[in-house]
Amino acid sequence: MLAIASTWRTSLALSFALTLTSAFAASGCGSGHPDLTPDAVRSIPAGTGTGSAASGTYTFRRVTTACSGRCSGSVSGFPFSVCDVGDSTDDSATVTQTDGVLVIDISDTPSLYRGGIDADGSYDVGAYATEFGGDVEITARSEGVFEAGGFVGTARSRTRGVVEMQSIDCIGSYDVSSLAL
Length: 181
Fold this sequence. Notes:
Blueprint: H1 2-15, H2 38-42, E1 56-70, E2 72-75, E3 78-81, E4 88-98, E5 101-106, E6 112-117, E7 122-131, E8 136-147, E9 150-163, E10 166-180
Antiparallel strand pairs: 1-4, 1-10, 2-3, 4-5, 5-6, 6-7, 7-8, 8-9, 9-10
């Protein structure tokens, strides 16, 4: 049973954000995050970039800098948390730039980020996913800049839903960096 709870906690924690980030109906958060709604993260426009300079394989590091809202609970008596300040996650990703469109495919949940990159290298990407049969929604958004050899930026995620009759509505903030492989 402990292994199941540990796997569940790991899965939910990994689901939390963007490895460029990663995140979502309890008290405190409400609708005060219009940039983290499912529609907002799925409709980020293309930027002014040209070419494919940002394309490649990268290693990403995400460090949790803040958590707010209802971010923890328990399942069958085992505590879980979807956001823990100081946590660090390393992952790899495939980045594809097609002119002003930027797509980041990462092995985390949510896994596919889409958005735009501008001619000056600044980017804005977002992602959406669900877990537990749609009972939990995760949105994530990352903004920053592509510089020679990597990305540097911030990310925020919102994890919202119900797990075993417990409401979760958690906003996570992250520092994000990457290096080309």
